[in-house]
Amino acid sequence: MPEKARRADQRARRASSLSSEPIDLGQLPDLLGYALRRAQVAVFRDFLKCFAKFDIRPVQYGILTVIELNPGLKQQQVCRALGIRRANFVTLLDDLERRGLAERGPSATDQRANALYLTEKGKALMRQLRKVNKAHEDRIAASLSPAKRRFLIQLLDQIELSAEAPNE
Amino acid sequence: MPEKARRADQRARRASSLSSEPIDLGQLPDLLGYALRRAQVAVFRDFLKCFAKFDIRPVQYGILTVIELNPGLKQQQVCRALGIRRANFVTLLDDLERRGLAERGPSATDQRANALYLTEKGKALMRQLRKVNKAHEDRIAASLSPAKRRFLIQLLDQIELSAEAPNE
DNA sequence: TATTGTTATACTCTATAACTATA
DNA sequence: TATAGTTATAGAGTATAACAATA
């Protein structure tokens, strides 16, 4: 049945294409990385469309969420939690601060570190964003039962742990 | 049980961190986009490590596969099959051609188009890459039973179809 | 008019090295 | 010595606009 399902899937892809020629993707549709990549790109595309009028990207939503739930966190802690490099985080936070959504404050215990907080404007935006995210999440999970959706996330976590860990 | 599983997962993430403070990720671990992104990044990192000595990235493996299985295809057809923009494909193909792995030939039916083929060197490389890919795939799927792995891919395909389709 | 390949361009993501000021 | 934040930089992914040649 799995091989049969694969063929059916390939037929579906062909049918949705504008091309008249059938294109053989070989093993690609059976590879986890291929399926993961395509699904992730599709979901992010949907996310960007839903959040377009707020000019918020997935990584920004993640940062705002972590700062809101953990006020006073250091930049490095946010970076570790979300898998962002320290160097790349600076520009991301600069942007959120410039837009008046988040702010760097002094740390009580470490003069090198910044303590991060959401502004009132940032908290107000998050109340809106959570609703938008709910609509987005419901749409991309529309074809999945709640049980399947939870199972999918569980499988994805297993995959993440099986693969290689980053360096830093 | 799902809520319980989520908490256990968050504890696991904390334990693997170097930080002593527990960081609340809120709903993030329950979002498909978040889990998808993290899994995809981890899998690609593993892929890059496995293919490093061949200097092959996932998109290049996909292009070589499609050209090998469908000799004579036009650039636009490869682009549609793999979700690559025409403009971005030019540089990718330039590189493969410069390395002597693929080549642009004249199309018998359309003088605007290029017919794409693998060189003998490209075919020989693919014989090696398929073995490397098998090892890579086995590793990232090590924690999954064959049935779970197939089910995961099926769910990912559903997700892809539920999300928004691209413009072009 | 539409399509194919191409060039130019821009923005984001990912990554490394190196600097400064603190610890 | 090590860590926190920063700057500079580079490569890769993604995207749009516009052009010449051809359909």
Number of extended strands of chain A: 2
Q: Mind summarizing the main beta sheet of chain A?
A: 2 strands, antiparallel
Radius of gyration of chain A: 20 Å
The CATH topology of the domain at 58-164 in chain A is what?
Answer: Arc Repressor Mutant, subunit A
The name of the CATH architecture of the domain at 58-164 in chain A is Orthogonal Bundle
SSE order of chain A, one letter for each helix or strand: HHHHHEEHH
Distance between the termini of chain A: 43 Å
Strand order of the largest sheet of chain A: 1-2
Based on Cα principal axes, name the global outline of chain A.
globular
What oligomeric state best describes the polypeptide chains here?
Answer: homodimer
Q: Share of helix among residues of chain A?
A: 55-70%
CATH hierarchy, class of the domain at 58-164 in chain A: Mainly Alpha
Tell me the β content of chain A: 5-15%
Contiguous helical run count of chain A:
7
Return the average pLDDT of chain A rounded to an integer.
Answer: 87
CATH superfamily of the domain at 58-164 in chain A: Winged helix-like DNA-binding domain superfamily/Winged helix DNA-binding domain
Would you tell me the structural class of the helices and strands of chain A? mainly alpha
Largest interface: A-B, 74 and 73 residues
